[in-house]
Amino acid sequence: AQTVTQSQPEMSVQEAETVTLSCTYDTSENNYYLFWYKQPPSRQMILVIRQEAYKQQNATENRFSVNFQKAAKSFSLKISDSQLGDTAMYFCALSWSNAGKSTFGDGTTLTVKP
Amino acid sequence: GAGVSQSPSNKVTEKGKDVELRCDPISGHTALYWYRQSLGQGLEFLIYFQGNSAPDKSGLPSDRFSAERTGGSVSTLTIQRTQQEDSAVYLCASSPRGGRTEAFFGQGTRLTVV
To answer: Cβ contacts of residue B53 below 8 Å, gap of 6+?
Structure first.
């Protein structure tokens, strides 16, 4: 069975500061993929960043980067220079090559304060 | 189309009535997913389509729930004899190649059973 755990239900950060959201997972697959999705109050879920498990290099997308620790099965998201528009619920997700569905964590609600 | 389209965006129904939720995926996406999200909670997987077939429908909560996909495109999720516990946001997503690629989500249908 595949599981994804987000241990921080809620977090807050001051505008322009850096915040890290935690995610741990468990899978018996060797070839898998990890994602962070953002769901703002408008409800539209969008991809933030994607990491392929066979790649050692951490993925980066502008202000968003991950710290992927394969041995520890950890996949945290770092948001630098936080902006008010980053306020949203963030979901960590896991899938693998032969699977259809992704397994999602319970989410972390992030509030960026002015 | 430009993105995943779901209709209706909101649905209020009386307990015991049947409802149909529609999802129009991105053209060319072979994989289609239905998830359910209760207020402020994570995503609960319902069913996965690859083309018109459903290799994984393990998440359907009861036999009151069914889904179909026709022409490798539009999908309909049907809930019969709705119950108050069915109230949630129903999210549809599609992806080009299943688990290896990101899922593109619709804005969801908020179902309220009164």
So the answer is: none
Number of domains in chain A: 1
> pLDDT tens digit string along B26-52?
999 999 999 999 887 889 999 999 999
Cα–Cα distance between A53 and A69 in angstroms, integer? 10
**pLDDT tens digits for range B60-97:** 999 999 999 998 899 999 999 999 999 999 999 999 87
- Specify the residue for token string 């989500």: B105
CATH code for position A94: 2.60.40.10
Identify the domain containing residue A84 by its residue range.
3-113
Nearest chain B residue to A106 by CA distance is: B42
A99–B99 CB contact, under 8 Å: yes
Domains and CATH numbers, chain B: 5-113 (2.60.40.10)
Q: Which of chain B's residues have a Cβ under 8 Å away from the Cβ of A42?
A: 107
* Residue (of A22, A24, A50, A21) closest to A36 by Cα position: A50
